[in-house]
Design goal:
single chain; alpha/beta; Rossmann fold; eight-stranded mixed beta sheet
Length: 291
Amino acid sequence: MIKFFRLAWLSFCAAVCFSVPVAWGQTVLHTEPSQFSPVVVYENLGERCMTFGSVQALGRQTCFAIEDPKKMVFNYTRMMMASLFVQPDPKRVLIIGLGGGTLPMALGELLPNAKIDSVELDPAVVNVASRFFGYKVSDRQTVSLMDGRAYVEQAVREGRKYDLVMLDAFDITYIPQHLMTREFLQQIKKLLSPNGLLAANTFSSSDLYRQESATYSDVFGRYFNLRANNRVIFAVNGRLPEAPTVRARAETWRAAFQPYDIDIDTTLSLFTVQSDPADPALVLTDSAMKK
């Protein structure tokens, strides 16, 4: 989900309150003005989606099936939900990057005793998520309008702890640099409770794949690596659970995951353990990223 530091849109785009047919059968429902770029909602082939800039822009940030809203359209969201195989009962959850609210809403339904805090930089995204994708703020479901790293650093200073942190924030090209470095991951680790889990959505074909791997290894050691269209990293503030434990926990979610179209066996087959050499030449740091 592309969230942070999107390129400014040079021409003002007024919100539209009617449907506009466009190429390839998409119907634009709404365009939300933003200081970064317009947030566009459209429908196509039975799905409602959110994208940035225009309906022709590459990439979709959020989609749901109109006739089956719980069904997860994107493979990466199904992989991210497999975090519950590693951390099965998180009481405090932090999600960096809101999009349409797919992950916080699903976790809110599946974890009735959890408090879920989301962080989103763009107020326009929150407006669209609430109006068109069913996201609602409540006592258990909060959203903060600020940069993800600033939120993490403030939470660390305040001594807060999270059992599960989901990192799902992208800029116009990839994950913002300040959310990729050793220093940022060290702050995340401080934020995690003992055996707390960081679930990070990344690209499986990123030019920085080796550097990302080395950076996660430098901070967390061994981690779970899941690859399909995207790459999802599960890094634990402690020891990784063994394979039989992960399988047993996954089985407890089999029935509950069915409405979301998450196949337990397929998802388990994606789990691999990765431990890359923490080569100092590869580790991403704040100072190196600023050059």
